[in-house]
Write a structure and sequence with these properties.
Strand content of chain B: over 45%
Shape of chain A: globular
Radius of gyration of chain B: 13 Å
Oligomer: heterodimer
Distance between the termini of chain A: 37 Å
Largest interface: A-B, 20 and 21 residues
Helix content of chain A: under 10%
Number of helices of chain A: 0
Number of helices of chain B: 0
Largest sheet of chain A: 7 strands, mixed
Number of strands of chain A: 11
Number of strands of chain B: 11
Order of helices and strands of chain A: EEEEEEEEEEE
Shape of chain B: globular
Chain lengths: 119, 108
């Protein structure tokens, strides 16, 4: 199956600083990438959807100025958590969907996740 | 959006069969997915149903009834490694939405 990588896998930062998380599709081109957030023992909540070369679409209640998403190429999307606060501590997971044909056209492949802890 | 319901927890014995039900309400149904998620890890794809019926893949099978807004994931010959959270996810025209997940505990 297709592989999606995330970096870093975990990060600890101080309150008020910014953190950038990278999501890469390694062996396919991802026209659409999704960013999810998951709090302990809860389900994945979609934060935003990004299409290559265009602005991200944010879900209701997600601050676009706080969670900056850039999808500059068909294999890379980044999520920057700006001015992080302890309540932003969570498990952030990206997902990518392929261009066309084969299983990658409907299936979303998930990255391994990034655990963010804000102190 | 979607309203996706699945049981919170299930417990079964090694070697047994467990069925996880999922009901959903959505506009513009475009497929139902089941994912397995171990604690602290990202979800891994198990199955995809877009037409009514049963899809079998080894020890795991998934069923869909679009008219009833209902799906189930059947886990056979349970193994200890199957202890995980199982997420039902429904896609509409735009996005994939997840249920809260069912934590399955397999006991020896």
């Amino acid at each position: 199956g297709a592989v999606v990588s995330q970096h870093p896998s975990w990060v600890i930062c101080k309150s008020g600083t910014s953190v950038k998380i990278e999501c890469r599709s390694l062996d396919f081109q991802a026209t659409t990438m999704f960013w999810y957030r998951q709090f302990p023992k809860q389900s994945l909540m979609l934060m935003a959807t990004s299409n290559e070369g265009s602005k991200a679409t944010y879900e209701q209640g997600v601050e676009k100025d706080k969670f900056l998403i850039n999808h500059a190429s068909l294999t890379l999307s980044t999520l920057t958590v700006t001015s992080a606060h302890p309540e932003d501590s969570s498990f952030y997971i990206c997902s990518a969907r392929g261009t066309s044909g084969g299983s990658s056209s409907y299936e979303q492949y998930f990255g391994p996740g990034t655990r963010l802890t804000v102190t | 959006g979607q309203n996706i319901d699945q049981p919170t927890e299930m417990t079964a014995t090694e070697g047994a069969i467990v069925q996880i039900n999922c009901t959903y309400q959505t506009s513009g149904f475009n497929g139902l997915f089941w994912y397995q998620q171990h604690a602290g890890e990202a979800p891994t794809f198990l199955s995809y149903n877009v037409l009514d019926g049963l899809e079998e893949k080894g020890r795991f099978s998934s069923f869909l009834s679009r008219s009833k807004g209902y799906s189930y994931l059947l886990l056979k010959e349970l193994q200890m490694k199957d202890s995980a959270s199982y997420l039902c996810a429904v896609r509409d025209r735009r996005e994939l939405s997840f249920g809260a997940g069912t934590t399955v505990t397999v006991r020896a």
